[in-house]
Amino acid sequence: MIHIKYQFAIAILLVACGFAKVVDAQINRTNRMAQPKLVKVYGSGGISGLQSYQSGFFVGSDGLVVTTWSHVLDGETTVVTFDGRKFLAEFVGMDADLEIALLKIKSTSEPFFSSEMILEKPYIGQRVLSLSNLFGIAVGDEQQSLMRGTVSAIAELDAKLGNFDSAYSGEVIVVDLIANNPGAAGGVLLSSDGKLIGMLGKELRDKTTQTWLNYCIPAATVFKSIEMLKAGKIVAKKKAKPAASFQLSLVGIELVPNVLQQTRPFIDDVMKDSVAAKNGIQLDDLILFINGKPVRSIREVATELSMIDRDSTVTIVLKRGEKTVTKRISRLDSQ
Amino acid sequence: MKLRRQNFVAIIELTAETNLMARPTTERNTMHPSCTACRYQLNHGLARSVLILLFVWLTFPTPLVAQLPNALMESETVRVKTISKAKEATVSVFSTDGAGVGAGVLISSDGYALTNYHVADPCGIHLHCGLDDGKLYDAVIVGIDPVGDLAMIKLLGRNDFPVASIGDSDTVSVGDTCYAIGNPFLLATDFQPTVTMGIISGVHRYQFPAGTLLEYPDCLQTDAAINPGNSGGPLFNEIGELIGINGRGSFEKRGRVNVGVGYAISINQALNFSGTLRAGGVLDHASMGAVVATASDRKVRVTEIDSTSDAYRKGLRYDDEIIEVAGRKIGSSNDLKNILGTVPPHWKIPIKYRNAELEREVVVQLTSVHSRQELLKKLSPKRPSVDPDGDKPRENKPSDDPDGENSGDGGRSIPKKVLENYQRRRGFANYFFHNQERDRVLKGLRKSVQSSTPFLSISLQGKTKLDPFVAVLQSEKSGLKIGDDAFTISSESALEYQTRPKNSGGFLNLLTVWEALLFNEQRSSNESDRSLAVRYIGTAPFVAFGETDVGSTWSKRKQLDVLRVSLDGTKTDFYLNEKFQILAAEYFPFPEADGCVVEFSNYGLVNDFGQLPQRLKVVFRQKLFAEIDIESYSAKTAAGASASRNGKGEN
User: Within 10 Å of residue B632's Cβ, how many Cβ atoms?
Assistant: First the structure.
């Protein structure tokens, strides 16, 4: 007869092992559910450090595959399903803002992620799983790589600061697992029970800290774009530059000479009786923001203004001594 | 658990605060941290708080722990226990010049540990190994597998080392929890290893070799952090069973640090090689003698085949479809590489293939990927054992250094006990361990057949299904008779030139070698024996004649010790079980010849001889040549009298 104390200990051990097994079993189950919905995408690349592979997943019964928009899709694109079948992919469309592309293969029987499977509100601290063909490890019918981590943050991508080289600047879900490796873009981020949280984005490195960001674009955003791509509404939505763009000289502002890589945008001169002068803009003011976008150099000021029509009203935040001043100016005010 | 600890801290802070708050304002204002009296008061207050807390905790334990499920907390307790046991068997490997190199894991209590080849290689013959108990042990190199990036080392000085419990890497699933333990960034300066946790990200991964070395076939992929220094260390499953040897990661532009993709050599692969690694060898990997490719119909077909390979001799041809190898389905050429990469080249493995519409299963002898010279040339010249000049075994001279230190290994001093466990010979990592294994098996074998009186020759009498059978075996001349057909071979001519009987592939030759292996030491003859060279090859599974569906039982098959006996130009491989009984032998008159296989069974005690087989099954070219029941053994002594001995003794 086992002593009651040991019986108790054994019972606890069994319960604990059981618990751990339940957790593992759920992950195993999610993996089995998701794998058939994933594809390996192959195309251009394979030279000078550019990989020729990435990930993707089915988003419709009609063979629609969403993946990231990259050089891989430049030429002929091959899609390989979970069981190793190979298809030549047809290009449906791309959303330049999200940097995603929609492909189509000739198959109508693939399991797919639908918008009903989206987890609308992931939360910070949530346990998540990523599945992707990072480093192109899996080939043929081999399973894509599964990783586990936690949601660290949900925030706007600081793309326009020049920190991250990304066209997308909306909300991203940041994770603590190293999800965004070469080839991982186009993979999925899932909750432990298999709900779709988002699509892994391309590799992004912070130019200041040299650190790599691990993130995904929220599934709802991706699906909204997919709906529009399916409807043929956007094919390429890259922001077009206005025919004539805003220039500071139009409002009577002259900046210091641009001599350095990062010359700070100090105002060198304000024309007499100009819009700027009337609005109280002064010599030696430093431009901090243009229409809410931070500008750290004369070059960034020029880039930002080039996207604004010459007749628009521009909001400029200035630093004057220790305080900040906000001004709204338009060329048309002088008339 | 974490939450609970946080609560604990919060409560301490809260009670301490309440304590102070309860005092009159004036008194509180007079508190000063630098004043001893006040500190005493404060400490006193804290002590009281702790007591109150203890009271609260003991009286109402539930409110504190109720926030997390019991199962979760117990799971953490179990995890902590599992890891602390797993840590004990983990080795931090350091080279003797102080530059740390990696990790390892103990797999036997007498000190055998597995690590990576790329960890052991720079260390030479002598390593320093730290264990979780904080102690540093001397270790010696045992065997290396440069292609599979494995090495066996032996820690010295104890017979009760903690040992990792071994798991089955074929049952690991994607998503399973796992722990990597090792010595990343050489943090284990106190020899306590670092533990990282993750999940299995992929199984049966194939990672290409660098050239032809350091190939990772059929490996496990994990997101548990694997960093430089984790190499050679263990990967454990949820319940602390050893499932792999960590050794590689995917690194690209982010530098040599973990990016969530680490690889471990599967423990099943390591175990396939470990019997052979223990014997001090420099191991090669296997080739089937055929190249395959995944065809457009997604079937794996033979695109090239070497006509001298055993696979070809067993009927495999160009464009045949490979269905299953070693019991595993083949869906891609990587699948085949995954299997071939995990078995030593002296193994035979079952292959199921389809030729036209005919499905067949054959057991194919593998060959080495490299030639011996080629492999040795590729290895680092640092290793004294594979130094091109190190052809001759080196005598282990006892040190006359009073400290027991000896000079060697690149000028560094090597302790005496390491040198006592090392013998140099070209082609071996450590010849000492080869001899140990060979002597262990030979001793066991010869102990089982001791004869009380010396004899000149031994006779076997019995019958096949139809005919009587007699064989007389002695060193100068052997003969056998089946029915009316008689055959002889003589020592006057080299063995390879007299294959007898015809169509048996050399049954009599095999019996001659078998008898010499068993009884050479006990022969009374003064004539010089045929010079037998006995080598321990390692361990391998054996497939008996007529077995069907070998693949389905392949993974559970026991490994047997294999001795290779060379005599004249011939070689014979003997497969022995754990009781040192020879279960089978295969005789090759010359390399790449078809072998004559004899299966020995029905072992029984034969008076004055010991344990001997009473049934022999002779197979040549996959056909049964003869099945013989031995009725008696007898010996001819030096006196010339033929002492007949009882055939079947009690078992």
Answer: 16
* CA gap B40, B135 in Å, rounded: 41
For residue B428, what are the β-bridge partners?
B281
Of A13, A31, A141, the CB nearest to B175: A31
- Position A10 confidence tier, pLDDT thresholds 50, 70, 90: low
Give me the residue from A16, A137, A148 closest to B198, CB to CB.
A148
Q: Please answer yes or no on whether A181 and B259 come within 8 Å at the CB atom.
A: yes
In B434-532, at which residue ranges do the beta strands (DSSP E only) sit?
Answer: 455-463, 468-474, 477-482, 485-490
Q: Which helix (H) or strand (E) holds B83?
A: helix B70-88
Question: What is the residue whose two structure tokens read 């200041």?
Answer: A208
Q: What is the pLDDT of residue B253?
A: 75
Collapsing DSSP to helix, strand or coil, B91 comes out as: strand
Query: What single-letter amino acid sits at A203?
Result: E
What's the CA gap between B173 and A29, in Å, rounded?
Answer: 10
Residue carrying structure tokens 């013998």 = B423
Residues A99-117 have a mean pLDDT of 93
Q: Residues B31-73: pLDDT tens digits?
A: 344 444 444 444 555 556 555 655 555 555 444 445 788 888 9
- Measure CB to CB from residue B250 to each of A135, A143, A146 and give the nearest one: A135
In this structure, what token pair is assigned to residue A141?
């019918």
Spatial CA neighbour of B416 closest among B430, B427, B406? B406
- Cβ-contact B287, B340 below 8 angstroms: yes
What H or E segment, with its residue span, contains residue B438?
A: helix B431-447
| pLDDT of res. A232 | 79
Give the phi and the psi of residue A229 in degrees, each rounded to 5.
-65, -40
Using a CB-CB cut-off of 8 Å, the residues of chain A touching B298 are: 84-85
Residue B41 burial (CB < 10 Å; 0-12/13-18/19+)? middle
pLDDT computed for residue A161 by the predictor: 55
Pair B253, A49: CB distance under 8 Å: yes
Share of residues in chain B with pLDDT > 90 (%) = 60
d(CA A314, CA A253): 13
Summarised one tens digit per residue, pLDDT across range B245-256 is: 999 998 877 777
Q: Phi then psi for A190, rounded to 5 degrees?
A: -125, 155
By annotation, the residues of B acting in catalysis are 118, 149, 231
Q: Residue A282: which residues within 8 A CB-CB, separation 6 or more? A: A267, A270, A320
With beta carbons under 8 A apart, name residues in chain A contacting B174. Answer: 28, 31, 143, 146
